[in-house]
């Protein structure tokens, strides 16, 4: 059994423009992995937040899956213009085309992310320092911790929340 993503959508009116903070974490890399995403309006209201346990995965896979979770939440909220903030330099630079996607395991996640990003009218991708990504980091670690509360063991495979 894999822990299902937990997500909350705000009763706040939908925003056309928002900032998405994402983070993926793997304890051991690869190891038990979790993801977190939080979407905020320009005024700071939380429009969406979610976390999930992935199973055994690398940190880079977790970073991409966190992005996919957050982008799906943003689309559900009707966001049209988005800024993605993540502390994964690899993720941001691959999405910007500054780094090639060399890993066969990341290629499908990269392509899925590009497809979702193309559904927004405007996209800004920003690499941030880890210490500025605290809320998404907490959600990613919560995703890993959900493993224990759901009775999920490390032998369980990855969960695809998006």
Please give a structural write-up.
- The chain has about 160 residues and is an alpha/beta fold.
- The chain has one domain (about 5-150): Ribonuclease H-like superfamily/Ribonuclease H (Nucleotidyltransferase, domain 5).
- Helix content is about 35%, strand content about 30%.
- The chain has helices at about 60-75, 90-95, 105-115, 135-150; strands at about 5-10, 15-25, 30-40, 45-55, 80-85, 120-125.
- A 6-stranded mixed beta sheet has the order 1-4-3-2-5-6.
- A hairpin with a 4-residue loop joins β2 (about 15-25) and β3.
- α1 runs parallel beside α3.
- The two termini are about 15 Å apart.
- About 40% of the residues are buried.
Which helices and strands appear, and what pairs or packs with what?
Elements (H helix, E strand, L loop, with lengths): L5 E4 L7 E10 L4 E11 L4 E12 L1 H18 L4 E6 L2 H8 L10 H11 L4 E6 L6 H17 L12
Parallel strand pairs: 2-5, 5-6
Antiparallel strand pairs: 1-4, 2-3, 3-4
Instruction: State the distance separating the first and last CA atoms.
Output: 17 Å
Instruction: Summarize model confidence as the mean pLDDT.
Output: 89
As laid out across the biggest beta sheet, the strand order is: 1-4-3-2-5-6
CATH fold-type name? Nucleotidyltransferase, domain 5
CATH superfamily: Ribonuclease H-like superfamily/Ribonuclease H
Question: So what's the CATH class?
Answer: Alpha Beta
Low-confidence stretches: 154-162
Query: How does the major sheet shape up?
Result: 6 strands, mixed
Q: What Rg, in angstroms, do the CA atoms define? A: 15 Å
Large-scale geometry: globular
The overall strand count is: 6
CATH architecture: 2-Layer Sandwich
Q: Determine the fraction of residues in helical runs and give it as a percent range.
A: 25-40%
Percent strand? 25-35%
Sequence of secondary-structure elements: EEEEHEHHEH
Pairing-aware structural class of the strands and helices? alpha/beta
> What is the tally of helical segments?
4
How many separate domains make up the residues? 1
